[in-house]
Please model this.
Amino acid sequence: MARILLADDDGMVRDLFERVLAASGHDVRIAQDGHEALGLADSSGAFDVLVTDVHMPGIDGILLAKTLAAKQPGLKVLLMSGFPEQLQRGKAELAGHIETLTKPCSIEDIRAKIAKLTA
Model:
């Protein structure tokens, strides 16, 4: 299964995603914002997938994805947001293996997007 870095400033969303991904057999590390996610990536080694909210204080999800992808070529990204225009901006600014997920979403939506990225 995949090593996943999950960054979201909403604790309820973060906890739900962590439970769903871990129950699917993935090794999940969580961060409450972009700064914490960068620290985890530096201290924990490479991840297969970054799952991140776009809108977070400090470093937003798009900048986080760009920064980590520069350090970890081949990193796959799942961008999440309740605002479709933010997801479109992310698609335009990020290259490579990227998927988007509009919040709110179902557990099946989460599983399907991760399965697509880790296939």
Summary: The mean pLDDT is 94. Residues 76 and 91 are 12 Å apart (CA to CA). DSSP finds five helices and five strands in the chain. The first strand starts at residue 3 and ends at 7.
